[in-house]
Specification:
alpha+beta; Jelly Rolls; 5-stranded antiparallel beta sheet; 3-stranded antiparallel beta sheet; 25% helix; oxidoreductase
Length: 263
């Protein structure tokens, strides 16, 4: 059966760290989801005077529009292709929605980062900067960006540093299984990725960006007129990634890490 992604898209994922899937889920689901999210913002979608904060973070959502979106046949096929059949855990919900509103107020959360995925024995679970990532991406198979509204270049699209996952893999390798905390990673302000070209995660509602766990990205201020609705859940692994497989059956996520490490 033909997969969701062609060979060129898979190779782009390995080299660039992400793939954009248009019409990954139905726009009707996005519309239904936005209605639920608007209700929880406490804002009036027809009255910008009620949009008093630059960002409102909404919790995990498992209602039908979100369950169907994350499990669309097109996305399930792509998960298999990028992570490997049986190597990822199905989701029944979407993660946090940072709803961004047009605003001149600094939201204070627009720095470059990667999404870390586990705590160790010294980590404070309430201190997100102490959470960690390691070279085998323990606890995270993919970073995913689900667009539930149309997102143009002025609508606070996520900024992505193309190929930055390769730089992060090389930085994480010496840290071994324990990896590095987000505080340690951010201490350099991710300068090792500053030479990378940037792209904006724009698209119509129903677009999804499937990203390598190490991809460096950042939020930005909203300079448009319509609030941006986007979920950013992880895809969780069913088994640890491996950088040495006897059968050589490496997933594209693993291939990207091996590419970075010249293996």
């Amino acid at each position: 059966m033909k997969g969701t992604l062609d060979d060129a898209q898979i190779q782009d994922f390995i080299r660039n760290g992400f793939v954009r899937i248009d019409q990954a889920f139905a726009p009707e689901l996005a519309q239904q989801g936005r209605a639920l999210l608007w209700a929880d913002t406490g804002c009036d979608p027809h009255n910008p005077a009620t949009w008093t904060q630059p960002v409102i973070r909404l919790g995990n959502y498992g209602q039908e529009p979100f369950r169907l979106a994350v499990n669309s046949p097109k996305l399930v096929g792509a998960y298999d292709q990028l992570v490997g059949p049986g190597r990822w855990l199905p989701r029944d919900s979407l993660g946090t929605f940072p709803v961004r509103f047009p605003s001149a107020v600094d939201s204070g959360d627009t720095g470059w980062h990667i999404d870390v995925s586990f705590a160790n024995h010294t980590s404070d679970p309430s201190d997100f900067l102490s959470w960690r990532a390691n070279v085998t991406s323990r606890g995270r198979a993919l970073l995913m960006l689900f667009l539930f509204s149309d997102v143009g270049q002025d609508d606070a699209p996520t900024r992505i540093r193309i190929g930055s996952h390769l730089d992060i893999a090389r930085r994480l390798e010496p840290a071994g299984e324990e990896g590095l905390s987000l505080r340690e990673l951010a201490a350099t302000n991710f300068e090792e990725t500053a030479h990378r070209a940037e792209v904006l995660a724009t698209g119509e509602a129903g677009t999804v960006y499937l990203c390598h766990p190490f991809l460096v990205h950042a939020a930005q201020a909203h300079h448009g007129s319509t609030p941006r609705f986007m979920a950013q859940p992880p895809l969780l692994p069913a088994q640890p990634f491996q950088l040495k497989r006897a059968d050589g059956d490496y997933s594209p996520v693993e291939q990207a890490i091996r590419l970075a490490l010249n293996r």
